[in-house]
Amino acid sequence: RYRLLLSYLVVTGSVLGIFAFTMYGIVARDRQHQLNLQIRQLATVAAVSFDTIQHEHEELFQEAEYSDYVESRSLDPSGFISLSDLMEKYQTHSSSFDITPVQGSATTSLPGLHPLTPRHQGIEWFDSQKLPLVREGDRFPSMPLPSEIAPDGEWIQTKDLRSFVLPISVAVSSTETTVLGYVRASESLVPLTTELEHFRQQLALGVLLVSGLVTIGGIWLTHQSLRPVLASFEQLKQFTSDASHELRNPLTAIRASIAVLQSHPERVHPSDVQKLQAIASASEQMSQLVDDLLLLTRLDRQTHDKHTWRIIPLDELLEELGHLYGDRASQSDLTLIVDALTPVTIQGDADQLQRLFTNLLTNALKYTPAGGHVTVTLRTSGAYALASIQDTGIGIAADQLPHIFDRFWRADHARTFDRGGSGLGLAIAQSIARSHLGNITVSSDLGHGSCFQVKLPIYPG
Fold first, then answer.
1. In this structure, what DSSP letter does residue 437 have?
2. Mean pLDDT in runs of 10 for the chain (461 residues)?
3. Cα 396 from chain centroid?
4. Among the listed residues 81, 84, 126, 75, the one whose alpha carbon sits nearest the alpha carbon of residue 102
5. What is the DSSP string of 147-169?
6. Angle value at C-alpha 72, between 69 and 73, nearest 5 degrees
7. Taking a C-beta distance cutoff of 8 angstroms, is the pair 387, 348 a contact?
8. Distance (Å, rounded) from C-alpha 139 to C-alpha 132?
9. Which of 76, 125, 140, 424 is deepest in the core (most CB within 10 A)?
10. Nearest-CA neighbor of 115 among 99, 103, 127?
11. Contacting residues for 24 by C-beta, under 8 A, at least 6 apart
């Protein structure tokens, strides 16, 4: 359920992230384009007034009576004359110019000069030698013009300012033009940056809000989608438990009857002896299978109730199993090595843990040919105990490794090697490990052996 919910949230979060990123990219690109159009339009409109600006600038500097005024007031450190000062001087001292105020503004306009420069914008006029003439609007830090300027204009951008330089040309022949001057229109990027930052915050807030709603909806959808699966699983577990219980009685009766017949061989026809042995062997296997199914059912339904667990020295448990299975290994011409056991205590059910390691040891001995050896080790890693059972047996193919803990699984080569197992031993071992908040991992090399590693939490007390 949690994996399904996590997958759902990851997919939905990725879609929301891509949507927000794409939306921001589209809006940012559109606003950048609008800004460029505004700056270019401002430069184009200002270029119309270049003749008037240049003429008035020359007239002002030619008037001796205004030279002191220009040097003391109008000329700023960058070499520009303020357009408002230029108009003010001529509005006050010259009646030869048609000076009219711009409606709704305190700024007046010279002939041919339209009202320009809203807030955060500035215009600068240069002569043909790229020397400053007049400026209007916000006084941004003045920079020299580029050495090379394309005929259709040149873009300049710094961290907080974007400018467009437009050359003002006139054709002197059909193939030649001359540059009369330049106009540089600039606009601050601070308002756009602030606007985009606000937009990013809104997008982030929207994504977080939608993600919260998606999480709530995902929890509900995950619960609803898994209800029939969980119901089917519960039915399957109930069926397995009921069937196992129901099979135990007839199997017990069969085994008892076979035992009675085998205890009185004189009542059995010699030709039926092998048949009785086959029936006895099959009934024993079925009884073992039923017991394993009942154990799996109990493990599936068992909660992690640590109140019934006790402290278990895991190294002593493994050492006892080594002594118990040592003789069996010797009879099969195998070497069982129980060595390098680090003293470790864990908390759990002793019978179940003994069943876990018994299953792993039995498999290791069963699938290791004569002359091989099985090694049991125990060490610690952080807060976990790592018990390893390594053999030099037939190994497991790489494509079979993901399925070895499936119920009733047995690889094809294992079937030919031994037919006595039920295919539930590793499934039981993994269920016991998980019920003790651990797990089992396996690595194997076909034809050279396998290594099963049990990871269990160490008792902190």
1. T
2. 84 90 93 93 88 78 54 52 64 46 39 53 88 82 85 88 91 83 91 92 91 87 82 74 73 83 81 85 81 75 71 93 90 89 92 92 91 93 93 89 80 47 81 91 91 93 69
3. 33
4. 84
5. S---TT-EEEE-SSEEEEEEEEE
6. 75
7. no
8. 13
9. 125
10. 103
11. 196, 199, 200, 203
Distance CA 367, CA 391 (A): 9
Indicate yes or no: pTM above 0.70. Answer: no
Distance CA 333, CA 322 (A): 15
Beta strands of 172-234 (E only): which ranges? 177-188
Pick from 293, 442, 268: which is nearest to 367 by CA?
442
Cα(297)–Cα(281) distance, integer angstroms: 24
Angle at 374 between CA 371 and CA 375, to 5 degrees: 140
Q: What is the pLDDT of residue 27?
A: 94
Q: What is the C-alpha separation between 52 and 388, in angstroms, rounded?
A: 93
Residue 110, amino acid = L
Tokens of 75: 């000329």
3-state secondary structure of 448: coil
Q: What is the spatial distance between Cα 279 and Cα 284, in angstroms, rounded to a whole number?
A: 8
| Whether the Cβ atoms of residue 185 and residue 46 lie closer than 8 Å to each other | yes
The answer to whether the beta carbons of residues 304 and 340 sit under 8 Å apart is no
Structure tokens at 411: 């690889």
- DSSP β-bridge partners for residue 26: none
Region label for 408, one of left (φ > 0), alpha (ψ between -120 and 50) or beta (otherwise): left
